[in-house]
Each structure stands twice: as structure tokens, then as C-alpha cells.
Amino acid sequence: RRMKRVIWMISGSNRRMVKLLFALALIAYIALFFFFFFLNLLFYSFSQKYPPVKFLSEKDRKRILITGGAGFVGSHLTDKLMMDGHEVTVVDNFFTGRKRNVEHWLGHENFELINHDVVEPLYIEVDQIYHLASPASPPNYMYNPIKTIKTNTIGTLNMLGLAKRVGARLLLASTSEVYGDPEVHPQNEEYWGHVNPIGPRACYDEGKRVAETMCYAYMKQEGVEVRVARIFNTFGSRMHMNDGRVVSNFILQALQGEPLTVRATNHPLQDFIFFFPIVCTLLVKYTALKMYCNISSPVNLGNPEEHTILKFAQLIKSLVVSRSQIQFLPEAQDDPQRRKPDIRKAKMMLAWEPVVPLEEGLKKTIQYFSRELEHQANNQYIPKPKAARMKKGRTRHI
Ligand SMILES: NC(=O)c1ccc[n+]([C@@H]2O[C@H](COP(=O)([O-])OP(=O)(O)OC[C@H]3O[C@@H](n4cnc5c(N)ncnc54)[C@H](O)[C@@H]3O)[C@@H](O)[C@H]2O)c1
């Protein structure tokens, strides 16, 4: 009996000991949990650095939808509007846009990214819509012309429908391509254009023309507030390596020692507007101003300074310090011979002035493409735009 008592006493003290140890372990566990939790929080708050964002009062803060906001122009517009303190929703199907262009905003309380095709209806609540969704470079919009038409027509109808339902103002990113291969020089907003409706560029040119028509039909019939910016050639950082337009082509060719391919041989003049993100991106700044201005009719946004394509190629060659040769290629069908915006209206209404010196804009863009090339295997990247989709055996338009 005595033995049993001793055993019981020992096991009793053991139980207390076990309980004590268990309590200590629990306390240590909770302490460690909180320690790591706060450590994580600290690390997260230091590692998540967003660009500086202004604080806007409830009254001034707008809920803004940017379609095509992960693209080249759209992502710079996203930066501007986010930094101005608005709530921005980017809608993109990532056809030519990239998440990388807006990744620095992911997780920010004012930012949302939606993977959505504007050809499908969208139901969200917004105060303003910047409608940019559309492939913009010829190789991209010619790749799938039917999709380009759908994006510019059905997509624009959907966005105008949304604007009507929620009472939002819509700004359409239109283009100088609505003037086609112009017979008037320079082109002012009154000029109706000269477009081949069945040519290879028609899916984009006519698509944008119909998109403009739709905007003004919704304005007249339904009272939707619309703004139309006719954007001329723009370049800068975040352009896609496969963009296929002259600036990115020349820079990539020069950086890699490839021949600079000049297409226009007869009238080698085209417009260029330089666009760069450091000084608030000219185009973006004025696009945003256009949204707020009181005049709904279209406005040209572009650079009236003319440069021959050849001189332009030589300038890029010298800035890159490249040994590339210049190679002439035959003209592409329906390529505009000459383009120059008449910007008197923009100057009067928006105080627009394309003030960034061309070389400065080009240097920034060259730096951007050099960095992009570093991400490629062997620092080599030959732009290879996809060939236009065409079913075999079908009649081809020649
Ligand atoms: N960059 C220029 O020189 C220029 C000149 C004139 C007009 N614009 C217009 O400005 C806008 C933006 O041009 P960009 O140069 O940034 O082109 P971009 O190709 O870089 O951007 C277009 C964006 O729209 C998205 N998109 C395309 N189809 C879509 C769809 N069906 N649904 C949702 N998203 C879709 C793409 O993924 C991309 O992110 C376009 O509307 C273009 O027509 C641009």
C-alpha cells in the first residue's frame, strides 16, 4: 500500500509537471506565432513599395475603368491616375498587354486587375471609362482582323452600354488611322479621311471609325458623355518587343546590329510623337485632360514635327552607336504616305504642346529596349509578328 502511495505521489507530481510543461510550450508557441506574424508584417510593409499616391477626398476620388490598361499606353495612364489618387480598375485580355506593365500596383487598395475580353459585356460600377482596348500595331491588328473588328465595334458598344447604365463619361482612344492615307495635309479634325474599306488595314481603321460613330450616336440618343482623342504615332517604354512599328523595330535592329529596314521609299515622311513616362507622360497627361475638358468633339494628339523615315533611322543608329546598315524594303499595302496632325484644337483646348525633345524620348526608349534585351537568351530578340490568320483553301483577297 505504501508503495502504491509513493507511486501515486510521484505520478501526481509528474502530472503537475507535465501540465506545467504543456502550459509553457503553449505560451512559447503563441509567443513564437505572434513574433513571426509581426516579423512577416514588418517585412511585407517594407517590401511592398508602391509609387507615391496622392490622397483624394471622397468627393474628388473617381472610380475609373481603363480597358486595355495592361498595354503600352494604358499602363502609363494607369500610373498617372493611380498616382493622382483615383481608384483604378484595369480590364484586359492580355492579347498584347502584359501583367508586368501594372504589377507594381498589384495588391494596392485602389487598384484592381480583371482578365476580361471587352467583346463580352461587363457589369461594374464606375464614374469614368478610358476605352483603350484594341491592338494598335499593324502586325497585331492584322493577325486576327475579325477579332480586331469585334473588339472595336462590339467592345465599344459594350463599354458605351456600361457608360449609359452607370452614368459614366467615356473617353475613346481613337487614332490617326481614321484619316487613312490622307489627301489633306496636315490633317485637322474636320477632315473625313481617305480609307480603303477592304484593305488589310481596314479592320482597324474602319473599326475605329465605327467606334467614333457609336460614341456620338450614344451621346445624341442616350445622352452619354463622350470624349474622343485621335492619337498619332506614340512610342516609349513598355512597348511590346513584337510591336512591329517603326520605332521599336529600328531600336531593336540597331541594338542587335541587324539592318534597319526602311519601308516607305516614295514619300518617306511620317509623324512621330515621343512619349515617355518620366515627365508624367505627355500623351497620358493630355488624354486625362481631354477627359475633363468640356468639348466632346474629337481632338488630335500628336507631334506635328516631321522627320523622314531615313533620317529617323540614321538618328537611332547614331544614338545606339550601331554599325547596322540601312536596308530598303518595298512599301506595305495602304501604308499612309504622309501623316501630320493639325494640333491647333488641342493647343487651344488643352494647352497641348509636345515639348519633350525627340532625342531625349528616344534615349529613354533605347534604354528600355536594352534592358528588355538583357532578359532574352543571348541578348538576342528578333521581332517575329505572327502571320495573319487565314484558313487554307479559302479565296484570298489580292
Ligand atoms: N500607340 C500608339 O501609337 C497609338 C496610336 C493611335 C491610337 N492608339 C490607341 O491607343 C490604344 C492603346 O494602344 P497601345 O499602343 O497601348 O496598344 P497595346 O496593344 O499596347 O494596348 C492595347 C491593350 O488592349 C488589350 N486588348 C486588346 N483587345 C482586347 C479585348 N478584346 N479585350 C480586352 N483587352 C484587349 C491588349 O491586351 C493591350 O493590353 C489603342 O486603342 C490604340 O488604338 C495608340
Automatic annotation (TrEMBL):
It comes from Hippocampus comes. It catalyses: UDP-alpha-D-glucuronate + H(+) = UDP-alpha-D-xylose + CO2. GO terms for cellular component: Golgi cisterna membrane. GO terms for molecular function: NAD+ binding; UDP-glucuronate decarboxylase activity. This is UDP-glucuronic acid decarboxylase 1. InterPro entries: Epimerase_deHydtase, NAD(P)-bd_dom_sf, UXS-like. Belongs to the NAD(P)-dependent epimerase/dehydratase family. UDP-glucuronic acid decarboxylase subfamily. It is found in: Golgi apparatus, Golgi stack membrane. Pathway: Nucleotide-sugar biosynthesis; UDP-alpha-D-xylose biosynthesis; UDP-alpha-D-xylose from UDP-alpha-D-glucuronate: step 1/1.
